[in-house]
Amino acid sequence: FLSGKRALVTGSTSGIGLAIARALRAEGADIVLNGFGDESEIAALCEEMEASYSGADLTDPAAIEAMMAAAGGVDILVNNAGMQHVAPVEEFPTAKWDAIIALNLTAAFHTARLAVPYMKKAGWGRIINTASAHSTTASPFKSAYVAAKHGIAGLTKVLALELAEHNVTANAISPAYVWTPLVEGQIPDTMKSRGLTRQQVINDVLLERQPTKKFVKPEDVGALAVFLCRDAAQNITGANYEIDGGWTAQ
Length: 250
Ligand code: NAD
Fold this sequence. Notes:
This protein is α/β, with parallel strands linked by helices.
């Protein structure tokens, strides 16, 4: 149902963004990929999805402008690229703060401001922001990430209001722990540093606040993104969809 629609998914060379790109592609959308990674792996993804690709570093507004100009009109904008840094506030590297705010929050302002004129003209559009359970709750040592994710939840609402009469919706998706290579890669180190088994790390550390004790699957996030593009979702805007195994119900 998305053939003829162009979808730009930021941070789509890995994890959640990749799953969202694949899910939108499966519905027929033309995909623009973005993110870092191994050149041959990215080429294989482009071939798999018949996608184009931008390697823009989204912490750089000029690179975002070049990416958006090259992409042309974007019907579906998925702001997903993000990164994390964990440190007490008094030790938090200021460069890390700036980079996380730039990537996890400011980049979405730039892509949105550049995508909106076309969406308004087309009379249809979908903006989907990957937020986080940390867009409504906090954890210690994640000051920049939590601040940026709360920020993107607010930006999503403003976009929803400004675009409400243009058939353009803006929504956030807020996962808790999603099983991505990033999360899987933390397990061996945590086993070593805390002297725990793999299962203990999964249940007692990673899934401690996730009542279902199950990771969210990237494909589940992809399926929700597809739903938000459907006509049935035309009146869903300004929402922040938790997909978190009950994390934020606590
Ligand atoms: P990931 O590390 O697997 O993917 C991140 C993507 O962003 C990659 O494609 C990477 O190349 C790209 N990227 C990184 N820096 C970039 C930059 N400067 N410019 C352009 N692209 C850049 O991570 P993920 O787990 O798939 O996370 C994706 C999004 O989901 C992030 O916004 C993250 O905060 C959010 N999220 C993840 C989880 C989780 O448990 N994995 C939970 C909640 C929210």
